[in-house]
């Protein structure tokens, strides 16, 4: 199916607006009409605004040019394609219209065929833009999220963690920084198969997310290792939170193809009173990592600070 656009016709001359509206209808382009600049801007500010704007130059409220300027100042993911439509056809006017952010310029009285072709150019441009925005959105997601678990990947996670620390300094809140790792995961893979291991990682990602609050931070550092960062009043409470999570995992029925697979996790953690030195994040990480190592040494399925 051809990519379809919705148009806005803004013209204080009702007959002229009607003419364009009828033509667009004939060409299968859905359109809304505004008779002054304010009404037009309102339309553009809607949650799902028209993407092709056909603006008269002189209108009460805002002129077509003022509208262009205003619209181009707004940071839009999918900015509209703007055609200025006016009787002013001097070279200066055309140049000004384009310089103020219009994509195209049609002089009145316009030739119907030319208007149609220009609208088609707009449609093609908007289609290309939509595809680009879509691809960028998917790339952004791929760059930040782990494909298997849907959690933040290591790089994006550490970026966010640095921000979390700066915020914690400002709000004088305290944090618990924890690294956790599935016990004997290699054996699980060997015994139940790699797809079963993947399923566990996915289920575990969900379980961990459920255990934390939406504003806490969680991500997959790599392999079967995750990072948890949450605000908490004191070390005692931080220990309780992690103990609860550890027990939830121990209790949870991880399933793959009808088989229940027992899973436990070891935790290393450090209680943090954030300060201005952001480079400390790496220190906290290595602290938590050493504590994790101790949990493993002491027999696994443990929380160590
Ligand atoms: P420990 O209790 O000391 O952590 O033992 P372990 O077996 O969990 O640790 P080890 O580091 O020896 O093995 C980790 C295993 O995790 C090896 C690797 O194949 C597996 N693994 C890493 N990433 C994935 C993944 O994405 N999917 C699956 N199925 N397995 C993974
Ligand atoms: Mg006018
Ligand atoms: Mg290991
Ligand atoms: Mg492991
Ligand atoms: Mg590991």
UniProtKB/TrEMBL annotation:
Signal peptide: none
4-aspartylphosphate carried by residues: 56
GO MF assignments: diguanylate cyclase activity
SUPFAM superfamilies to which the protein is assigned, alphabetical: CheY-like (SSF52172), Nucleotide cyclase (SSF55073)
Domain Response regulatory: 6-123
Protein name: diguanylate cyclase
Reaction(s) catalysed by this chain's protein: 2 GTP = 3',3'-c-di-GMP + 2 diphosphate
All copies of domain GGDEF, residue ranges: 173-305
Keywords, comma-separated and alphabetical: Nucleotidyltransferase, Phosphoprotein, Transferase
Species annotation: Grimontia kaedaensis
Enzyme Commission number: 2.7.7.65
Pfam families named among the record's database cross-references: GGDEF (PF00990), Response_reg (PF00072)
Keyword Phosphoprotein assigned: yes
Domain of life: Bacteria
